[in-house]
Amino acid sequence: MGPLKAYESGQRAPKPDTTIDAMLSLAEFLCLASSAVVSIGFAVNSAASGTQKPVFVWLGSRVLAWQCVLLVGGVVVGVVIRRRQWKRVCGDFSRPGGGSGVNLLERIEKLEEDLKSSATIIRVLSRQLEKLGIWFRVTRKALKDPVAEVSVY
């Protein structure tokens, strides 16, 4: 069962475009993974062999340039994925009432109000509990002597 989402009455849940999301995720993974593999390969090779051959140096500069391009591409694809996810979760905030999804800002504001009221209730209950503790200690001290007298008989 998936996560619960709230929609206004009469409004249908939008179908997620999973094909595009899957392709973007795959592209991001391939860009970042290939960049990581090349980095690890060059690090291991340079650590294993102290001297590098001129062909490897020439090839290495080209591969490192493409590695940077792939790394930047992976970051850009990641930004696109996160932006799509953010729009799906939050909806459109440009107009009052939100877009097609859940209005996250209103929910957060309501949660903050509930949290403030809960904090107020906890403070009141804490004071009452403190008063009850003081009353209990006073009552215990007051009853200590009569109980001791009764237990002697």
Your description of this structure?
Keywords: Membrane, Transmembrane, Transmembrane helix. The chain crosses the membrane at residues 20-44, 64-81. The chain is 76% helix and 0% strand. With 153 residues, it is mostly helical. The chain folds into two domains: 16-90; 104-153. Helix 1 runs antiparallel to helix 2. The protein is elongated and about 105 Å long.
Termini separation comes to 69 Å
For the report, how would you describe the main beta sheet?
none
Which residues sit in consecutive blocks of at least 5 with pLDDT less than 50?
A: none
Number of contiguous helices? 3
Brief synopsis:
The chain has three helices and no strands.
List the helices and strands and how they pair.
Blueprint: H1 18-48, H2 54-90, H3 104-152
Helix pairs in contact: 1-2
What structural keywords apply?
transmembrane helix, 3 helices, 153 residues, mainly alpha, transmembrane, membrane, 2 domains
